[in-house]
Amino acid sequence: MYGCNRCTRKFSRRWNARRHNSLVRDDSALILDRNGEILNKDNSPNLDSTAENHQQLQEQKIRNFCVRMIKPIDKLETLVNIRSPVERQKYFSSVITYSLSQANPINYIEDLIDNAYSNLWLNRLINYVAVGNNINYQGARILLENLITNNESFDT
């Protein structure tokens, strides 16, 4: 297998990878052979620019990471209700750095999104119950929690 480092597309033949690089990438992509070795345009090992190719691979990995993280981080930003800009910066700094220590950073952030959605909707439901029953927030919370935990349809 031969691959393009720009789009991670795989080709069974070296010639197809070269053609892809030429037609789609304007000869700007790196072609990787089945062993992960970087090949230059004539598909011989490019020994002169190994450091440059390594740098390009690192930059591509960072770009791929950013592209994959845009939507989850953006979604989390809309859900997290932290008003102080400093506290918001601290929160997202810790989310990003901690997520990168996980086996799957995107799954970690998606779990945070699920929790944020749950908290958002729980607060909305509590407000509905509080206003609808003319009770305070804490009383509505206790009432709603009791109703949910005693309802058998929500057992796990």
Description of the molecule:
- The chain is mainly α.
- It folds into 2 domains: 1-48; 68-156, no CATH class.
- The protein is built from 5 helices and 4 strands; from the N terminus they run E-E-H-E-E-H-H-H-H.
- A 4-stranded antiparallel β-sheet has the order 2-1-3-4.
- A hairpin with a 5-residue loop joins strand 3 (31-32) and strand 4.
- Helix 2 (50-79) packs parallel to helix 4 (105-133) and helix 4 (105-133) crosses helix 5.
- The chain is elongated.
- It starts with a strand and ends in a 7-residue tail after the last helix.
- Residues 43-48 have low confidence and may be disordered.
Could you give a short description of this structure?
With 156 residues, this protein is mainly alpha-helical. It has helices at 14-23, 50-79, 85-99, 105-133, 137-149; strands at 2-4, 10-11, 31-32, 38-39. A hairpin with a 5-residue loop joins strand 3 and strand 4 (38-39).
Give me some keywords for this one:
4-stranded antiparallel sheet, 5 helices
Write the SSE topology.
Blueprint: E1 2-4, E2 10-11, H1 14-23, E3 31-32, E4 38-39, H2 50-79, H3 85-99, H4 105-133, H5 137-149
Antiparallel strand pairs: 1-2, 1-3, 3-4
Helix pairs in contact: 2-4, 3-4, 4-5
